[in-house]
Design goal:
The protein contains 7 helices and 11 strands. It has 227 residues and is an alpha/beta fold. Helix 3 packs across helix 4 and helix 4 (108-121) packs across helix 5 (138-152).
Length: 227
C-alpha cells in the first residue's frame, strides 16, 4: 500500500486552487524531493499530506487514511517541519519535547529518554533546555523543531526547507537524520530550493508547477508525472 496516494487532488487556499489536480504516489521507504518555483504548490502539497488541509476534490490517502474522513488518524502518524517550526513559544524546549511526546502516545519514561537523546543529537545546548522557545535564536528553534520530529518518530516525514536557518553543522545533521529515518523504515518527502544539497538524499525528484506535478524523475531519468 502506498504511503501517499493522490489522484486528481484539488486543494484550495481561499478560492484559489493551490493544488489543481495532483497525481502522486509515494511508496514506503522512499525519499522524494519536491521542487518548483515559489507559489507552485509545494508547501500546500506537504500540508495536505500532513492532514492540515482538506482536499476539495479528487482522492487523497496517507498511510491508508482518507484525508477527507480520516485526517486526524493520519496526523498521528505524520510529522511536518514547516516554516513556523511547530513549537509553542511560551513553553520551554523540554516542555515542547514532552508535549509532542505525549501527542505520539509515549509513556513518561519513553518521553524523557527520547527527549534527552534527540536534544543531544541536534546539539541543543543544555543551558537552553529550560528556556522558553521565544528566547532562542532562529537556528536553535530550527534544531528544536527537528528534535521534536526525532522524538515522535513518525512514519512519514514532511520537511519544508529543512536546512533553512541552520549552519553547516546543522545542515549535516539534517542529512544524517533523513538517512537514519529511512534506514529505520520511514518515508521522507522534502521540499527545498537547495537542489544540489538535497539531491544527494534522493534519486527521485518531483517537479510542481501551477499546482500540478509536471515531472517525476528517478535516477536521473525523466518519466511521466504519474509514472
Amino acid at each position: 500500500m502506498p504511503v501517499v496516494e493522490l489522484r486528481g487532488t484539488v486543494a484550495l487556499l481561499g478560492n484559489f486552487p493551490a493544488l489543481a489536480g495532483v497525481d502522486l504516489t509515494v511508496r514506503a521507504g522512499e525519499t522524494v524531493l519536491v521542487r518548483g518555483p515559489n507559489g507552485a504548490g509545494k508547501t500546500t502539497l506537504l500540508r495536505l499530506c500532513a492532514g492540515l488541509i482538506r482536499p476539495e476534490s479528487g482522492s487523497a490517502t496517507v498511510l491508508g487514511h482518507d484525508l477527507v474522513m480520516e485526517r486526524r488518524a493520519a496526523r498521528r502518524r505524520v510529522a511536518l517541519l514547516g516554516h513556523a517550526n511547530g513549537l509553542y513559544d511560551d513553553l520551554t524546549v523540554v516542555q515542547n519535547m514532552r508535549f509532542w511526546a505525549r501527542a505520539a502516545g509515549l509513556s513518561s519514561g519513553e518521553a524523557s529518554q527520547r527527549t534527552a537523546s534527540a536534544l543531544d543529537r541536534l546539539a541543543v545546548a543544555r543551558r537552553l533546555h529550560d528556556q522558553p522557545v521565544h528566547t532562542l535564536s532562529a537556528g536553535q528553534r530550527r534544531r528544536t523543531s527537528l528534535a521534536a520530529l526525532v522524538v515522535r518518530r513518525p512514519e512519514l516525514w514532511l520537511l519544508d526547507e529543512p536546512h533553512a536557518g541552520l549552519d553547516q553543522a546543522g545542515r549535516d545533521v539534517v542529512d544524517a537524520l533523513v538517512s537514519d529515518a529511512v534506514a529505520a523504515g520511514a518515508t521522507v518527502v522534502v521540499s527545498s530550493h537547495e537542489l544540489e544539497r538535497v539531491a544527494t538524499l534522493s534519486p527521485r525528484v518531483v517537479t510542481v508547477s501551477g499546482g500540478m506535478v509536471v515531472d517525476d524523475t528517478a535516477g536521473g531519468h525523466g518519466r511521466p508525472a504519474d509514472g
